[in-house]
Amino acid sequence: MLNPPEASPAGRAAMTAVVIVVTLVLQVSVANRLPLPGGVQPDLVLLAVVALALVAGSMTGMVAGFLAGLAADIIPPADHTIGRYALVYCLIGYLCGVASAEMDRQSAVPFLAVAAGALAGTVVYAGTGMILGDPRAEWASVSGMVPLQVLYDVIASPFVVWAVLRATRRYERGERARGDRLAVPAARYRAMSGRSGTL
Questions:
Q1: How far apart are CA 70 and CA 60, in angstroms?
Q2: How many other CB atoms are found less than 10 A from the CB of residue 70?
Q3: Burial class of residue 5, CB neighbours in 10 A (0-12, 13-18, 19+)
Q4: How many Å apart are CA 120 and CA 57, to the nearest integer?
Q5: How far apart are CA 21 and CA 198, in angstroms?
Q6: Fewest CB atoms less than 10 Å from the CB: which of 35, 73, 103, 156?
Q7: Distance between CA 80 and CA 97 in Å, rounded?
Q8: Closest CA to 58 of 182, 175, 185
């Protein structure tokens, strides 16, 4: 049986852009309007960046994180210093992409990585707010917000990760054979996206 043609880098970039745009729209129009206890909402954009980093590696995670964060910084209701989300998402995308290379193939591991990424992203965002003097980033409010934010992110993560994996499964071919150390082989996440062992 012949293998399908190799997915193009342009197609992968376009699919990544579509994932980011759709996630941003869902964040602004749905997630931010949820009347959840504690006044915080799940960060769907952060979850999508982590999932993209797990699938495509640290370089894609870093670039997708920066672009998604920059868009989140300027899309209303943007009420913080521009660049905070860009910094946080870029850093988390890179770290999750690097960590994905060390993961085993068990299907639960990526979801644990998403939870860890959500925790790290929330803490780094709150930390940058404290450094920049954001009055909403005081320790009393942050210490109560972080557990709820992580809980909501963990609850939303299976849906976001599944959707991202399904959307990007055509472009999951590992680039490690071409010498790219930053890319992650697709075989590690095929079980989550419902693919069989053959391409």
A1: 15
A2: 17
A3: exposed
A4: 18
A5: 31
A6: 35
A7: 27
A8: 182
Token readout for 35 is 């009347």
Tokens of 96: 């999750």
Helix (H) or strand (E) holding 24: helix 9-29
pTM over 0.70: yes
Q: How far is CA 146 from the centre of its chain?
A: 17
Size of the chain, expressed as the number of residues it contains: 199
Say what the pLDDT of residue 118 is.
Answer: 80
Yes or no: say if 67 and 107 are a contact pair by the CB < 8 Å rule.
no
Spatial distance between the Cα atoms of 182 and 199, rounded to a whole number of angstroms: 21
- Tokens of residue 87, six digits: 């910094």
DSSP class of 41 = -
| Mean per-residue pLDDT, 8-25 | 85
b/e burial code for range 129-168 (CB count within 10 A of at least 16 → b): beeeebeebeeeebeebbebbbbbbbebbeebbebbbebb
Q: Which amino acid is at 55?
A: V
* Gap between the Cα atoms of 117 and 123, Å rounded: 10
- 124 neighbors 92 (Cβ within 8 angstroms): yes
Can the peptide bond before residue 158 be classed as cis, meaning omega within 30 degrees of 0? no
Tokens of 139: 């320790």
